[in-house]
Specification:
Distance between the termini: 45 Å
Strand content: 35-45%
Oligomer: single chain
Largest sheet: 7 strands, mixed
Helix content: 10-25%
Length: about 120
């Protein structure tokens, strides 16, 4: 299978230890926030002022761990990663789940709710 490769993925956890996901208004599916670097995760947390209890890292080559994570997420209405979401611009890449791995990647652009003047 031709799937995207990541050296690491960094996920945001809330105070209850749950992964932080984003669901657009009037959409059935949600995406879990993930970052390709620790710096990108910290930048998002700082800019968004999101209440994040912890940033956890998973090795990109941990196929069994990623498969288990994807299976657990799919039990909820989460069907993709929102990779490297930039809070100020709303730009990110959507990485779809395909089976127990990663599938297609597409560019996404969300409207930033706060425009800096």
């Amino acid at each position: 299978m031709n799937t995207p490769q990541f050296s690491e993925l960094h996920f945001l956890l809330d105070a209850a230890g749950a992964l932080i996901a984003f669901q657009e208004k009037d959409q059935s599916w949600a995406g879990v926030l993930a970052f390709s670097s620790d710096a990108a995760a910290h930048r998002f947390v700082g800019e968004s002022r999101l209440e994040v209890a912890e940033i956890v890292t998973m090795a990109g080559d941990d196929r069994a761990g990623l498969a288990a994570l994807i299976a657990a997420l799919k039990r909820r209405p989460i069907r993709f990663l929102l990779l490297d979401l930039e809070y100020s611009s709303g730009h990110c890449r959507q990485v779809d789940f395909e089976g127990d791995g990663f599938g297609a990647i597409k560019e996404r652009q969300f409207d930033a709710a706060h425009r800096h003047a």
